[in-house]
Structure prediction request, 1064 residues.
Amino acid sequence: MKEPIEKPDFEGLSLAEIREIKAGMSHYEDKTAASIEALKIIQKHRRWVSDECLVAVAELLEMSSAQLEGVATFYNLIYRQPVGKTVIHYCNSVTCWMLGAEDISERLCRYLNVELGEISADGEYTVLPIVCLGACDHAPVVLVGDKLKLDVTENAVNEIFGR
Amino acid sequence: MARIEIDGQSYDVQDGDNLLSSCLSLGLDLPYFCWHPAMGSAGACRQCAIIQYKDAEDQRGRLVMACMTPVKEAMRISIDAEQARQFRSDNIELLMTNHPHDCPVCEEGGECHLQDMTVMTGHTFRRYRGRKRTHNNQNLGPFINHEMNRCIACYRCVRFYDEYAGGKDLQVLGMHNNVYFGRFEDGALENEFSGNLVEVCPTGVFTDKTFSARYTRKWDLQTAPSICIHCSLGCNTAPGERYGELRRIINRYHGEINGYFLCDRGRFGYGFVNSQKRIVMPGIKGQTETTAEIAENHFRNLLKYAKSVIGIGSPRASLEANFALRSLVGEANFFLGLEDAEHTLLNAIVEILFNGGIRSPSLRETEQADAVLIMGEDVTHSAPRLALSLRQAVRNASFDMAHKMHIPLWQDAAIRQLGPIRSPLFIASICSTRLDDVATGTYQGSPDDIARFGFAIAHCLDESAAEPVDLSEDEKSLARSIAKALKQAQRPLIVSGTSCLSVAVIQAAYNVAKALPAQDKQLTFTLPECNSLGLAIMNGRPLQQAFDSINDGLADTVVILENDLYRRASHQSVDGFLEKAAHVVVIDNLENQTVGRAELVLPAATFAESEGTLVNNEGRAQRYFPVYPAADPIRGSWQWLTRLENSQWRHHHALTAACASAFPYLAAIVHAAPQTDNIIKGSKIPRQPHRYSGRTAMHANIKVSEPGQPQDMETPFAFSMEGAMAHVQPALLPVIWAPGWNSNQAINKFQQETGGHLRDGDAGARLIKPSGSHLPWFGHIPPAFEPEPGLWRIMSLPHIFGSEELSLQSTPLAERLPDLCVLLNPQDAESLGVDPGDPIEICDPARNFLLKFPVNIEKTLPRGLLGITAGRPEFQPLKFLDQVTLNKANPEQQPNSEAPL
Prediction:
C-alpha cells in the first residue's frame, strides 16, 4: 500500500545544520542542486557524513538516499567515513606518481602509524590519495587540510609536520 | 534518406539517424554496449568506433563513435579499417580488465551481449595480469541478483532504471575506476520495471533471481511465442521451459505493444504454473481415483442427463475456450461470468471502442501523445506497461524543443540537459498515483467526482457537452486549464479504465475525447483481465442471471470455465448458487474456492501449455502457443469442451474460424497468427534451439530408450529441435538468435529498422476499424460524493503485485505484496482516533463485524473513502463501493508472557 506518513523532522541533523542547508537551498530553483553544499555543511559540523546524516539530508532535499549517495561518493572531498581533524591528500595522478607519490604516502603513513584512510591515534590526521591537484609543475604535491604543499621531497614528514 | 558509403559499398539510410543505428539496421555487425534503441546514445562505452573520411580522397580518416555521429549525405565511413578494428579490440580489452572469468557459472553465459561483442572484436586473450577490482553485492529483493564484479560500467542500468522508468533507488555510486551501480543499502528494488535490468544489462550484473532457483542455459530452454496474461495490455513474452517446468519469462519484442520492456508482474508472475496449487488430476467428488477417461465420461453423462446446462465463461480464458463453452451450452445459456457492474462497464467500453469513432492506440502510439489525461486509473498498478509508455510521452515536449534546436532525438544526454520540459500529463484518480512525479496536475476524488470532473473538462472543450453543476471554483479552474492544454495538443490521449468501476467515468472520458478538436486524438481503456475485451465482445449474459437461472430452477447443471466466482460475487450468493446447482463442473488450472465446491474438476492447461487467442485492451487479437505439452491428463480448456462426442471441431484452428464467423467483431481473429500447421514446405518451427542438449538423456532415469517427441497437431510449432527456421516471420520466432548474436540484442537482425517494427509485421490483428461515426454526448452526470457521517465507501485500489489472481499464486511476488492494511484520509483517521498501524474494525452499516486491519494514512485519499487492495482474498467480504462503518479496535491482546510462575 502507500508509503507511511513522513518521519519526524530530519532526524539526526542539528537545527544549525538544517538552517544552513535550507539557506543554501534557497539559492537554487531545484533543491537537489544544493546537495554538494549540504554535504559540505554537514562536514563543517562533523568532519564526515554518516549514513544517518545522508538519509536526513536526502529527505531535506527531497531526493532519494541513493541519488545523494551518488553525489557524496563522486567527490574526493566528501568523506563517508570518519576522518582526522586534518586530512592529508597526496596526489597520485601521473606526474606525482612518477615523481614519488607512493613513497611520500608510505612515509606519512609510517610516521602517523596509520593505513590509508585511518585516523591517527591522536585523532589529528588521515591520509588519503586524491586525483590531480593541478600543480604538476611542482610535483609531487600534497594537500594538507586546505593548504597545498608543493615540490614535496623525501623529507615529506618534516615538510608537512615541521619536524 | 541519405546515401552513404560504408567500406566501399553504397547504402541508403535514414537521414538524421546515428551511424550505429544505421549500420545495425543494414544488418552490419558493429559492437556496442551503452547504446540502446529505446534509450538513445550515451557515448559512454567507446565500443562502436569507426573511421570517418573527410571526402572521397581522404585515405586516413579519423576515429569517431558511430552512436554519436549523425548520418550525412555522401558520408564515407569504414567499419573494417584496421585502426577502427584495433581501437575496438583495445577498448574491449580495457573494459574486460576487471571482468571475472566466471562465464561457466554466470547465468548470462550463452545469452551475453558482452560475450558476443568480445568474440566479435576478436579479443580472445587476456594480457592484463593485475589485480581486479571487486565489489560487495547487494540483496536487491526477490527478483534480481546482483553481481557487481561483472560490471563494465556502460551505465545502461541507471539510464533505464532512473531516466527511462523513473526509479530513484538504483544509482551510480563512486567514481573513476571504482563505480558501483546499486542502492543506498540492501533492499528490494522499488521500481515496477526492475526486471528489465536483466535484459538491459549487457552482461551478468543483474540476472533473474526467480530463474536462478531452477536455472537452465538459454539454448536448453524450450520456448514458444506467448502473450502475457497478467493484465489487459497483451505484452508479448517468451516463456522458457525445461523438464516440464516453466523456468522464466523474458520480453518478446513487439513493435506496437511492449517493445523491449515488460513489467515485473508480467516477468515474475509466472510461478503459479509450477505451483503446488495446480490441479494435475481430474476429480470427482466422492471418488478417490479418477482418470481422464472416467472424468470425461462423467462429464458426458452430466451433460446428457441434465435438465438444462448453463456455462459460465471467463475473462482470463481464451476466446476459443469461451466459444467452445458457449457452443456446448447454447447461446442462451452462456454467461460471461462477470458481476453486473463490471459487465455493464465492459459493454459500455465495447460500445465506445467500436462505435465511438475514436482510435484506441497501441502502446507505441501512446508514447507519441503530446498531452495526456488519465481518468480514474493508477496505471502503474492497473496496466503497468502503459505507465512506462506514458512516462515517455511526457518527454515529447523536450523532443519538440530538441528538434527546434537541431538536436537529434537519439542524443539522449543532450536532450536531458534541456531540463524538465514536460508535455502535459493530468491525472484524476482516487488517490495519489505512481505517475504523479511527472504529472502537470492531479485531482483526487471519488469515482463520481472523477466523472464529474471529466464531464467538466469536456464541457470546457465543447459547450454542447453536458455540464456538471455545483463544482467548486478549484475544480472548475483546474478543468479549464486541463481543457486548454488538451485543446492545444495535436496528439492528445485520454486514458481511462475499469478501476473505478464507474460507467460515468468511462462516459466522461469519451465526452472529453469526443470534444477534442485534434484529428489525431486517442482514447484507451485499461481493463481488468487479459481477455476482458474479447469476452465482452462475445455478448453473453451477466453472472447474476446465471445465479437466477439455477436458483429459479431453469437449469440444474453448471459448467464453470477458469473462473473463481468467489472473486466476483458475494460469498453468500455464490454459496447459495453452488448449493442449489445439482451438478457443478469446473475447468481450471489452480485450486480455488470455486474448484473446492465442484462435483467434477477438470484440470486445465495454463497459457504455457495451451493455445488460444486473447483480445487486448487496444482491440488487438493475439495468439499464444503452448511452450511445452501439458502433462497428461491436463488438457487445454477448449479440448475438454470440444472432445466430448461428435464435436464439430477437431482442431484449434477450426474452432478459431468458427468463433470468427460467429461474431462480426471477431472476424479478424483468424489473422492473429498463421493458421496452417505446416507453414514452411511441410516443416514446422522448432521450439528448441539447434543447440538444445540432453534430449536423449533427460528421461533416462525413467527409461533408457528415447521416447518420441510429442506431436503438436494444433500449431505451426514442433516440440523438437528439428524443423525449418529460415524464412520464419520474426513475430513467430520462439527464440531470438542470429549467428554471433546469442543475447536478446539479436532482435536487431529481425527488425525493419532498429527499434522499429518486426520484419513481415508485428503479431496480431486489430479488430477495431475506425467507424467514422460518433456516439452522442453522454449526459448522465452523477451527483457529487458527500461523505456521510460515520460511513465510509470501500475503494478497491489495484496493486501491481497484490491484485491479479494468478500472479498472486507466484512465490517471488508474495514478497512484494503491499502491507495488509486499509487506507484512510488523515482527518478521518483523526476523527476515529487512530494512528498509523492501529487496528480498525470494519463493520457493515448494520454494525455486523466484517474484518479488522491496521490503518495506514493516505494524505491524498478523499474523506469518506476507505482504500483496500483490490483482488486480495483477505478483503473478500468487502466489495467496491460497499458502505461500511469503522471503529477503533482494541489493541491485540498481548499473550501474558510475564505471568508469574
Summary: Chain A has seven helices and four strands. Residues 1-8 of chain A have pLDDT under 50 and may be disordered.
